Amino acid sequence: MKRLLFPILFTVLVTANSLNLFAQSKYQYKIDLTKVSNSTLQVELLTPAINQPSIEYFFPAIIPGTYSISDYGRFISSLKAFDKTGKELTVEHKSVNAWKIGNARKLYKITYVVQDTWHTNIKGKEIYPMGGTNIELNKQYVINTPGFFGYFDQLEKLPFEVEFQKPLGFYGSTALIPSSSTASSDLFQLKSVHELYDSPIMYCKPDTVSVNLGRTQVLVSVYSPGKKVQATTLAKAMQNLLAATQAYLSGELPVKKYAFLYSFNDEVNPKTVSGALEHSYSSFYAFPQLDEVTAKVIMTNVSAHEFFHILTPLSICSKEIREFNYQEPILSKHLWLYEGSTEYDAHHVQVQSGLITADRFFKVLSTKVIRSKKQFNDSLSFTAMSKEVATTYADQYPNVYEKGALINACLDIYLLHLSKGRYGLTNLKHDLGIKFGGDKYFEDDRLFDEIAAFSFPEVKDFLNKYVAGNTPIPYTEFFALAGVSYHDYIKNEVASIGNISISSLGGGRVNIVNTSNMDAFGKAMQYKLMDEIVKINEVAITSANYSEEIDKIKRKIKEGDALTVVVRRKNDAGEIQEIKLSAPVSSLKETVESYYKMELINESELTSLQRTVQNAWLKK
């Protein structure tokens, strides 16, 4: 019996000691959401064991996805440190984001107060609301975790426990799965500060919908006072897009759970920019109140972009992103990949799946050309800009959504051209994901070599010249590889439809607004000033398509063809009636000037390779 007692007692002691060590080797945070005062909350932290005389406690200066200095420490006040007896330890506020705690071996607990960023008057650069915090008692709590929780120097990889006491009837929408949950509390367990800062939570009365995409569960959660926008509405609006995204990624998504967290709240500071912030398993959206129709349109496009971030940089990234430095802006060179390819994918998926037309896709790309050339430095190295985007080149950052997307469009086409339609950007990102996904990462200076190894040596030359170099991309040359004509400016002579001026005057109507230069053919057609154009050659004309469709008709018709135009005009009695006007097309020509024009080259003029690339690019 004595021989048995010692092993049993030893086992008990070892287990007890293990539990004690475990309890001392993690962060234990508690927040009571029911105790709000002037948009502030108190936070309590039972600290991990500290084995040094003093230690620094940090809040982040910068977080992934924002590419700007936020200084979350500005919103922390009354930070105090205590030993187990409740005795207060010395705390020195060293800098905006750092507190030095003395006699740290005795440290047991820290308390402090968090001021939310949506209602603050604290000076400094505004934090964009999608990365900020909101504290509204019994209404909404936006828990962007960098604004609530700090970490100790060199202890970022310890586990975290975060417990919330919540108002009755409230639900915490997040991609996290709570380790325990009751009507009044939630407990979340996280592997490190990196996972914590990657996991926003939105507390409010629930309006949620869950959608299954293969093995991936997608949560759609909405906060909208007065239910102006509802989760079921947004989920239905995004259903086709999510299905198209699944197909675009070869039928399998790289995450098991994803959460779209939408906040439509007029508490958002009107001086800041609305938008969204991506995370590995979720995205948070901060907008003022929108009507349902507007919300569906905006959220579909914005959500497509954020959802594609599950690939870059949240799956494929460099060491600078994977081991992010929250105190100094040590950024990667490859925003063209992280933001640029994501923005490109968000639109490319829609044309490949048939959700938008090729013409609409070309309009998106040509608009990006206009913005990138007119608003930003087109000769600036994109890798240099990326590396210093939080400081030197902060004003160039929006170009990642313009030229960044165009870089990827041209790269996609070039890959398809070199591979004769068999290997494009999605294939490349798939291969990069296999090699660098999970906890792995690539070296910034090696990425072009890695891409060339997966694809072609010529691709490295493309990247060095147009991404790392200062040479503007010759869009005409690259789009032509896919059988697409593109020009910054081009002047053509086309068949005349009367040399009249046509414009939309609002209300969806399209009218003839000037006949002063009308030619002989226009007179033969018997146009009249302010005729409302209804149809041309059986094509319905609207305020949304008139410019595009009329341009197509002018390029297509030939001398001797019949042109038929249906118009609405007032008769002598003042009544509106439809009239069909028709005449054979004459030999007269009109000069058409086009700026930033993209269109498909005539099928008869395509080479076999252009046709192959075009089909691979625009069709799934």
Question: Which descriptors would you attach to this protein?
Answer:
alpha+beta; Immunoglobulin-like; Neutral Protease, domain 2; eight-stranded mixed β-sheet; 31% helix; disordered N terminus
Secondary structure blueprint with pairings:
Layout: H1 2-24, E1 27-32, E2 40-46, E3 55-58, E4 76-82, E5 88-89, E6 91-95, E7 98-101, E8 109-115, E9 134-136, E10 140-143, E11 151-152, E12 160-165, E13 171-173, E14 180-181, E15 185-190, H2 193-197, E16 201-204, E17 208-213, E18 216-223, H3 231-248, E19 257-264, E20 275-278, E21 282-287, H4 292-307, H5 319-322, H6 335-352, H7 358-375, H8 382-387, H9 403-418, H10 425-436, H11 447-454, H12 457-468, H13 475-480, E22 484-495, E23 501-506, E24 509-514, H14 520-525, E25 532-536, E26 539-540, H15 546-556, E27 562-570, E28 576-584, E29 589-600, H16 608-618
Parallel strand pairs: 1-12, 18-19, 19-21
Antiparallel strand pairs: 1-2, 2-8, 3-7, 3-11, 4-5, 4-8, 6-7, 9-10, 10-16, 12-15, 13-16, 14-15, 17-18, 20-21, 22-29, 23-24, 25-26, 25-27, 27-28
